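Quick illustration, no need to memorize.
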Amino acid sequence: MAEDLVITKSADKKAQYQSLIPQIEALITGEDDLVANMANVCAALKEQFNWFWVGFYMVKNDQLVLGPFQGPVACTRIFKGKGVCGAAWQQAETLIVPDVDAFPGHIACSSLSRSEIVLPIFNNNEVIGVFDVDSELLAYFDETDALYLEQIIKLLNFND
């Protein structure tokens, strides 16, 4: 596929995801390098939604280590249970945080981040990383984001 995306600018978030997911699938099909695919997924999502930050952290030596991302510089390492990413890792569940300032122990990589969603990445029922998205807007993320971002993560085949 050509590396051009057709960006759907609609008030309907669901329609935006439904337009983008087949494009992401086409973009990563045939490429077996996981890091390259993670990088393109971040770029596609950032381009579509203009989020403040979008990226991956992968578990290495009992820490989350920064992986491919789009946005300003980020925290390089996060301990299990620390911040939203570390909590999603520890709890092995998606966390939607409408106001990061109200989240106990939030790690402020940037004071401009106002809301966040973090999804755990599984391989054989073990959390091997997290997918983190930040917005400059309060209460931006919801169950629609959780549903479609989970589908996108599954496209990356972390189980291979």
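The mean pLDDT is 93.
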